[in-house]
Design goal:
Helices cover 50% and strands 12% of the residues. By secondary structure, the chain is an alpha/beta fold. It has 3 domains: 243 residues, no CATH class; 216 residues, Rossmann fold, CATH 3.40.50; 33 residues, no CATH class. A 7-stranded mixed beta sheet has the order 7-12-11-10-13-14-15, sandwiched between helices. The chain has a 3-stranded mixed beta sheet with strand order 1-3-2. Strand 13, helix 16 and strand 14 form a beta-alpha-beta unit. It comes from Candidatus Nitrosopumilus koreensis AR1. InterPro entries: VWF_A (IPR002035), vWFA_dom_sf (IPR036465).
């Protein structure tokens, strides 16, 4: 069961596309206004989220007057965009048109190709998703009814109305011929031929797009779409409502989370606190190259003992009589007959903080893979009562995983969505992470700082760095620095430089083991 808007949206797209997650990158950029599709390897799908503006709602360039009244309409359009995007990821291959596309108007040629591919998507959905397609067809019909009213309002006379009606009939006839041709003969050669016919008869492209489609250009009619009223049915209605409920729930949670981090960041110099963008496809692309490292770090870190008892002896606890009898009868020293009455590990709190500034660009992808490895290890060993978080920083502080959040596909998508830019406020990131750890009841606290050690952004940054080190020390926080030069080792509990991910994983396991076992 998917529990958040990004997870469910991406899952619907992957299901419709029926392709590996590594082949599709799904993102939800905060400032995006219109759905964007970019074809290639991988296919890139950028989804705009509905935006709340007082009591109004903005989606795909349409400003609906009331969030409540437009609820089913907005989320029907959003869900339709997921099926539309997933369908394109499944069937569209723009490389077919590459040679034909040359020496043509890029805008018109792209629109002609899109027209052909949209028909192919509709045929694809027809064979697999009857209820969603039925709802999508109803959306189209409702939009066309509105467009007729819109035309009636702007045309001055019945004569103009009749002329426009005749012209639209001609367009509709041409479009139906194209649809029939694609349905009966869906070959690369025929697609190119039809795209060429549409290019030459560009009037058939129309003046507006359905509001769930990609790469929309706003028109006067776009504003009129605020009067659209949709009542979805069946499975489509269920998912539309679920997406909308998740959106409302997430707005509340994010507002609460932002308030918490604003308090943690008081007196610090970050320009803003923000959520990381999401890209689950990129996460899985990175994971393909990191599978062995993930297995290694999960296995080795989970075997680290941080309590006085040695888990390898297992010679303490309550006697389990059946095993004791077996051990005596077989005279074997290899059978343990003690049942441990306490955990072998004390719970810990981890704050993982990664530098995402411009100076990290060269080694960023490598350390992003390492971050993925350490996240998997954190999830493995802190699943009972330990807490762990991930954050990024530059001159902004980026929320990736809060202590209270589950390590699910949304968090993985945030790791995949990280990018490198900006200045490097290392001291401020350390102070914020230390404040978080101070609030936690676990006594064993770790700050894992992933950085190249190059700090820049304001004049007093060196003094603030020393202040951050002192604050962590007083709070009993162990700072393990990954990626810093050897000359900075005196500042941290343990530190080591980054050369390649294999060595960095091995060095991390050694560093963590040495610090964890200091408590024994």
């Amino acid at each position: 069961m998917k529990e958040n808007l990004y997870d469910l949206s991406a899952n619907i797209i992957y299901e419709v596309a029926d392709k590996e997650k590594t082949s599709i990158e799904v993102t939800m950029p905060e400032k995006l206004s219109f759905l964007e599709l970019k074809y290639g390897k991988p296919t890139q799908i950028s989804l705009p989220k509905p935006k709340k503006s007082d009591e109004k709602c903005l989606y795909q360039g349409i400003l609906f007057d009331s969030i409540d009244d437009s609820y089913s309409t907005v989320w029907s359009l959003f869900l339709a965009s997921l099926y539309h995007s997933g369908g394109h990821a499944a069937v569209s291959d723009y490389s077919v048109y590459q040679k034909w596309y040359q020496r043509k108007s890029p805008i018109l040629a792209s629109q002609a190709i899109k027209f052909v591919e949209d028909i192919r998507v509709q045929e694809y959905l027809k064979t697999r998703y009857s209820n969603p397609l039925k709802n999508i067809e109803m959306i189209k019909f409702s939009c066309e009814l509105l467009y007729n009213k819109f035309l009636k309002n702007i045309l001055e006379s019945n004569e103009k109305n009749r002329t426009q009606h005749a012209f639209r009939n001609k367009i509709e006839h041409f479009r139906n011929e194209v649809k029939e041709s694609i349905t009966n003969n869906d070959t690369p050669e025929n697609r190119i031929k039809l795209a060429d016919e549409i290019y030459k008869n560009r009037y058939a492209l129309g003046m507006w797009e359905y509001p769930f489609c990609d790469n929309i250009k706003p028109t006067n009619f776009t504003k009129y779409l605020k009067y659209l009223k949709l009542n979805p049915t069946g499975e489509f209605r269920h998912y539309a409502n679920e997406l909308g409920n998740m959106w409302i729930d997430e707005i509340k949670k994010e507002e609460k989370m932002m308030e918490k981090y604003k308090k943690y960041s008081e007196g610090l110099r970050f320009d803003k606190i923000k959520l990381a963008p999401e890209n689950l496809g990129k996460f899985f692309q990175l994971r393909v190259d990191s599978t062995n490292f993930i297995k290694k770090i999960r296995s080795q870190v989970s075997n680290v003992t941080n309590s006085m008892e040695d888990p390898n002896t297992e010679d303490y606890g309550y006697i389990e009589m059946q095993k004791a009898v077996q051990a005596v009868a077989s005279e074997s020293q290899g059978i343990s007959y003690f049942e441990q009455d306490q955990e072998l590990r004390y719970e810990e709190s981890w704050a993982i903080v990664m530098d995402t500034s411009a100076s990290m660009k060269i080694q960023f992808q490598d350390l992003q893979k390492f971050l993925m490895c350490i996240a998997e290890a954190a999830d493995k060993i802190n699943y009972k009562g330990g807490k762990w978080s991930i954050h990024g920083f530059s001159n902004d502080f980026v929320l990736i995983k809060d202590f209270k959040e589950k390590y699910d596909d949304r968090i993985k998508a945030r790791i995949g969505g990280m990018n490198s830019s900006g200045l490097s406020f290392v001291p401020d990131a350390m102070k914020l992470a230390t404040r978080m750890l101070e609030d936690d009841i676990n006594e064993r606290r770790y700050l894992f700082l992933i950085t190249d050690g190059y700090m820049m952004g304001y004049h007093e940054i060196d003094e603030e760095f020393q202040s951050a080190i002192n604050l962590a020390s007083k709070a009993g926080v162990n700072v393990i620095a990954i990626g810093v030069p050897d000359g900075m080792s005196k500042y941290f509990t343990v530190s080591f430089p980054h050369t390649e991910i294999r060595k960095t994983v091995a060095n991390f396991v050694r560093a963590y083991t040495s610090v964890a076992q200091q408590y024994m």
